[in-house]
Each structure stands twice: as structure tokens, then as C-alpha cells.
Amino acid sequence: MAPSARRLRIRGTNGWFPPTLPPPHENAVLTQEDLVALEGIGQARVLGTGDTMYEQDGAADMLFLVQSGIVRVSHLTADGNRHILAFHWQGDVCGLMEDGRYVNSAVALCETHVLGLPRVALQGLLLSQPLLQNEFLVKVAADLRKTQRLLIALSSFDAPHKMASFLLECTHHEDHYDAAAQVVTLFADRKDIADYLGLSGETVSRALGVLAEAGLIRRISTRRIGIEFSRLRHYVEA
Amino acid sequence: MAPSARRLRIRGTNGWFPPTLPPPHENAVLTQEDLVALEGIGQARVLGTGDTMYEQDGAADMLFLVQSGIVRVSHLTADGNRHILAFHWQGDVCGLMEDGRYVNSAVALCETHVLGLPRVALQGLLLSQPLLQNEFLVKVAADLRKTQRLLIALSSFDAPHKMASFLLECTHHEDHYDAAAQVVTLFADRKDIADYLGLSGETVSRALGVLAEAGLIRRISTRRIGIEFSRLRHYVEA
DNA sequence: CGGACGTTTGAATGGACTCAACGCACGTGG
DNA sequence: CCACGTGCGTTGAGTCCATTCAAACGTCCG
């Protein structure tokens, strides 16, 4: 299939692999043709809040493309500890597997639309459409970079800094950030945030207290946080 | 280009994307033809111990394929903290970039041979050879999984467990593990290990003390550690 | 023999954790 | 409409572990 002009333009701007990433939340853009091709081999699925998309150690035959909503990808360790590796949004791909089994679990945090892509069919499609495969390459590379960011935040910051960093990450998602009012609407509860940042729920709570005390945020409700964007940014940088 | 029988066999075993990963250290295997094609567009480079492959924030025009040796990929944060994100070995790809600049720094830990692959030429090659692009996709996915592993280890284990986990990781590399004698030869100094595991150098030292005290390892010299492989594995799992 | 660097060990500090109690919002049923 | 229960969030007290600062130790190389 010949590439569309639009696709080429987009690629020319963002760069190929390795990706020249726009702001971390943005992603490789699939063209309309790409999407049609993927829908041809995939099956749409709608998940409600708390529904499981796939389960760690479960037989893995599909990869998933998130079309709307939020997906929480977590891993359970042998000692019973849960770790959230990523939150996925529209355009993200998930379903990492090893030896035919999913490595992690994925759960929808709200009503979420995904496209299930059978592994074998996807292989064939990607091989026949190098441009599409390249989009996937860019997506995975972006995911890698996102994970690296988390890794760094996790091991270098104290609890308040981690929390500040998370709040700034939230501002990248328009659905959950009112830029005019500077208000973040949290999409995860305290325990989820804790497992994402490598903290306990109580510490997340206390970290919010510290930030509020410092005047960097104001608590509107448990799920709504007003932020002083630039001061918060400065706080994380320093 | 028609795929070789060998390539198809290998792929049939390991699976396409998302990769069915063999032991974590192994990687997508490039065929001889792949390598020839890459050498056609790339330039071989030899690095001595401590030589920089590329620098964080430096202009990024090349991706690198490690052909032998060890590469340490690290990131320096604004607050002066250094984090080691990965050690790369033969067959690994590195050079993640954003906006035309490298995101991390890469340094050789010993004599290291790499193939520098100009970004634009690589783009063209990958698009013209879907099978080769797929190998890269697998490599990046493997890298993502490796980073996830590190992330989990980092936030769930205490210092001795992190250290034990690192030692087990070392056993995957034949050049640095004498399986018969059960002796690991560390390829990084205490500070590097510390920055990889999110600890201080002193804590790494103490963690080794704890493991030795528990009879899980024996210190032969600062860089050579005898290990009780199965007991160590059991220690990490539990 | 001395110096430099990496490693180990010690003592004191601090930050996050656990355990526990309390507060708050929501929903249900009387 | 109020009483009650439940789930989540916050707050408090005490403990533990990694860190920092500091000094001693070792080893390799001049």
C-alpha cells in the first residue's frame, strides 16, 4: 500500500525510529488507512470500569490497541507485591508477552474501547505494511522511554517529588486536566498511585499534605487537585 | 528480499512481535544477510574502557548495534543524580533519542565493538526490509521488558534482594559467569551497581555482607563472587 | 614506599513503612 | 428522614532500613 501524504508528513515531523518523541503522552499517529487495516484483522471490545483486558500468566493470543479510556497495566510479584508499570491511553499498545503468556495484567479504569489484534494476523499485517510496522516500532520505543522515565523518578525522588512528578504527568491528558483552572482530576485511587510510584497509600496521602503545605497544590476533593503548574514544575526540576 | 529458511525457523520458534522472549538476556537473532545489510549502511566503531559512545543531550544522528563488549546506559537528572538504566550486550540496540538529542549517555565498560547506524539510512533500510524491521521491533520490546523487570526489582525489594537479583542477572552472561564453579565476575564497580539498583555504594557493600553472612554467596575478591545459585534463586523468589 | 582510588565498616540521621484509629462520603434499609 | 454499614482517605505513633558523613582498610601503580 502506498503511503499517504499525510502519513509521510507526520513521519517527517516526528522522525522515524528511534522516535523523536513529542511530549511523552503523545504517540505515533495511525493513519485512517492503518486503522482500517487493523480493524480488518482485529475485534473491537468495550470494557467497563474494573474489567480485565488480560491477566498475567494467561494465554496470550492478542495484542491490544487502546482506542479510548484508560488501562492500568500491573504486575504481581511472587511475594504478593503489586506494581503498576504504566497507564495506557488512546493510541497506546499493550499486551507484552513471553512464551505465549502475558507478563502483566491490564484492567480498564473507566469505560474503555480497545481493538484486540490476534498475534499471528498482526504479524502478517505488519510484515506486509512496513509503514504500519514502523508505527508500532515507534509506539514501543515511546513506551520504553516512558518506562525509563518512571524508573528514574522512582529511584531518585522522595515521596513529595514523586507525587509532584505524577501530577505533572497528569496534566498531559486533556481529559483530566483543566488547563485554565489548573485543576487535575485524578483517574486512579490512592493505592493505584502508590503502586505506580512505589509508595504506600498513606505516604501518597502525606505527600499531598506536604505539597499542599508548601502551597504547590490545593486539595479540592480527594480526586480533584488544584496545582500551581510552574511552581510545581520548578519543584520537580530542582 | 526473500526470507531465508533459517530466519523463518528462528522466528517460528521465538514468535513474532510481541516477542516470546527466551531467557531475558537473549535477543532477536539477526541473520547473516541482515548483518551484511546493516554493515552496508553503518560504520564499525571500537571503544576502549570508559569511552563514550554518545552523550545525553548530544545531537543524535546514529543508533548503535552492540557487536561485542558491554555498554552502560545512564541518565543524569537535573539534581545531579545518576541512574543506570541498562547494561547492553552483544545484539542489543541503543541510542534512544527525543527531538534529535540522545536521552541518555552510553559508555563502554570494556573493549566494545559497535556498529553505528545513521538514523535516516536505517529508516530506509528497515522500511525496505520488513523482516529486519521486525527484528528491531522485537529488540525494543525485549528492552522494554528488561526495563520493566528492573522497575519491579527496584521498587519491591530491599537492598540484599536487589543485590541477589543482580547477581542472578549476571549469571545469564557466559563471559562473566563460570557455571561450573558458580562464580560471577562483576563487570561494574560498586557505584555503578548502586546506581543501577537505586542504592548507595555503601549499601551495596553491606548487602553483599548480608548475603555472605547468610551463606548465599562467598566473596572471592571485590569483583569475583561465588554464588549458591539455587539458594540465591529461592531467596529472590520468596 | 607512597599515593590514589575503590571498598568496607561504623555511628547517627532521616524518611517511608506498618499498624491502628479516626473522618468522611456514599448507599442501603428501616 | 435518619441510623447504620462500608470503602476510601487521612492522620498519628513507633519501627526499621537506607542514607550520609566519616574513618579505616586494601590494592594497584606510580
Structure notes:
The structure is a homodimer of 238-residue chains. With 238 residues, chain A is an alpha+beta fold. Chain A folds into 2 domains: 3-154, Jelly Rolls; 157-237, Arc Repressor Mutant, subunit A. Chain A has helices at residues 5-14, 32-41, 119-128, 130-156, 159-170, 190-197, 201-213, 229-237, and strands at residues 43-47, 52-54, 62-68, 71-76, 82-88, 93-94, 97-98, 101-102, 105-108, 112-118, 177-178, 183-185, 217-219, 224-227. The first copy, chain A, has a 4-stranded antiparallel sheet. In chain A, strands 2-9-4-5 form a 4-stranded antiparallel sheet. In chain A, strand 7 and strand 8 (101-102) form a beta hairpin. In chain A, helix 3 (119-128) crosses helix 4, helix 5 packs across helix 7 (201-213) and helix 5 crosses helix 8. Chain A is globular and about 55 Å long. The termini of chain A are far apart. Mean pLDDT of chain A is 89; it is low at 1-26. Chains A and B meet through strand 7, helix 3 and helix 4 of A and strand 7, helix 3 and helix 4 of B. Chain A binds a DNA duplex (30 and 30 nucleotides) through helix 7.
